[in-house]
Amino acid sequence: MDSTFxxxxxxxxxxxxxxxxxxxxxxxxxxxxLAIGFVIGIIFGLLxxxxxxxxxxxxxxxxxxxxxxxxxxxVLFIFYGLPQILGGPIDAVTAGIAAIAxxxxxxxxxxxxxxxxxxxxGQREAGLSLGLTRIDTFRxxxxxxxxxxxxxxxxxxxxxxxxxxxxFAVIGVGELVRQGQIYIATTFNALEVYLMVAVLYLAIxxxxxxxxxxxxxxxxxxx
Amino acid sequence: xxxDDDKAPIVRIEALNKHFxxxxxxxxxxxxxxxxxxxxxxxxxxxxxxxxIRCVNGLEEFQRGQIEVDGNLLKPNGKSGGALQAIRTEVGxxxxxxxxxxxxxxxxxxxxxxxxxxxxxxxxxxxxxxRLLERVGISDQARKFPSQLSGGQQQRVALARALAMEPRLMxxxxxxxxxxxxxxxxxxxxxxxxxxxxMTMMIVTHEMSFxxxxxxxxxxxxxxxxxxxxxxxxxxxxxxxxxTQSFLARVLTH
Lengths: 223, 254
Ligand SMILES: Nc1ncnc2c1ncn2[C@@H]1O[C@H](COP(=O)(O)OP(=O)(O)O)[C@@H](O)[C@H]1O
Ligand SMILES: [Mg+2]
What we know:
The structure holds two protein chains of two kinds. Chain A is an all-alpha fold. Chain A has a single domain (24-217), classed as MetI-like fold, CATH 1.10.3720. Chain A has helices at 9-20, 23-48, 53-67, 71-86, 92-117, 121-129, 134-164, 176-187, 190-217. In chain A, α5 (92-117) packs across α7. Chain B contains ten helices and ten strands. Chain B has helices spanning 2-7, 49-56, 82-90, 106-117, 122-135, 151-163, 181-196, 208-214, 232-237, 242-252; strands spanning 11-20, 23-33, 38-43, 64-69, 72-74, 91-94, 169-173, 200-204, 217-222, 225-230. Chain B is α/β, with parallel strands linked by helices. The chains are: A mainly alpha, B alpha/beta. Bound molecules: adenosine-5'-diphosphate (ADP) and magnesium ion. Chain A: It holds the Pfam family BPD_transp_1. Chain A: This is Amino acid ABC transporter permease.
């Protein structure tokens, strides 16, 4: 081993243009996956607090299954397992999006449930007593308030899901980590390149955090 | 004929029984309220006053009896169908905790229900809201959010919000109990004016001098039963029931 190791700044910078090619995949998979996950989360989050027990149970089973198993196993199942049922291959990016969607959907269901349940009972009663239907009361009274309270937790989930996309290197998605691996295979600068990979993840997640912080300061979040 | 219609009760509660699990909260309540009448409900904490008026607009279900409001019939165990919605559209409610919508400006609080429920145009809803806010003395706060208002102002907005639906009946559940003492007067003034204009009102309150002044009829509830009922003079000055006497002795000395 070379004990007089020198960090190769040049190699680190040289890798950046190559790594940047992975970012669209990272953003695409996390962005679309989270958007679908949000829709899933609203549906199952509301089923979770339905007055009907069997609907609650459907939601509980979904949430427990996808929260209780690793994202890596989920994507392997979708990418390698599902084609055996469907009879045709699934594109790696699609598999990644699906995995983020079902996984974040499970967590977001719980976020939605918590947000909705955190709204005081009097809000619903005020809406109903004004003659608003149950749906309108939810739409115009409960949801806007619940959503604001959910934003910090949703941001948290966004950051987790963005980082989870790094796992999809194993199915060959050309995202950030995968680009790094390919680059290292020819240059052997593992330290420099993985450091740059980490810095790029941090840049993405910090932008998200800062954006949310600004929203919060504008008073659009919380209350 | 039309005179008979005028005198027909707007609220008709018959043999109302309500349980919370094993707790029998309302026991065979019979009560009618005539149009324009102001009925004040008094009684000790936990006697069932809130539950009674919450049954009237279906915020609580009940197990036996029936409630008819302006021709719409509420049946036991939530089996009222469309009557529930019809009643809530015609009956306004003011809560102890105001329950304003904190994410909406004051004027949007007042405009929401007329626009969604009565399909009133935005312009018309805004005109009505402005007029009502003026009437309760807070037109200058219309663009603020509820959290920027004092408790007394918030409760007056809540009153305006309910009135925007042009209710046939107003329910009040201890509207001044969450207020600092110096703000109670402004809310009672607004209610007093409403009563003078002929609004039908059911009011739960501990403000006994206010009750004496505005009530056409006072109802005393003890452990879920109406044990005394009459004009303010009858109930406050000559209560027949011992329990009413001791209740009044307690609250009036405070
Ligand atoms: N949601 C509820 N679940 C169980 N018990 C309740 C509920 N609401 C009220 N109660 C009980 O019913 C009784 C009457 O309550 P309430 O109508 O609020 O009394 P009041 O308004 O006269 O103080 C009390 O004993 C109270 O504890
Ligand atoms: Mg009460």
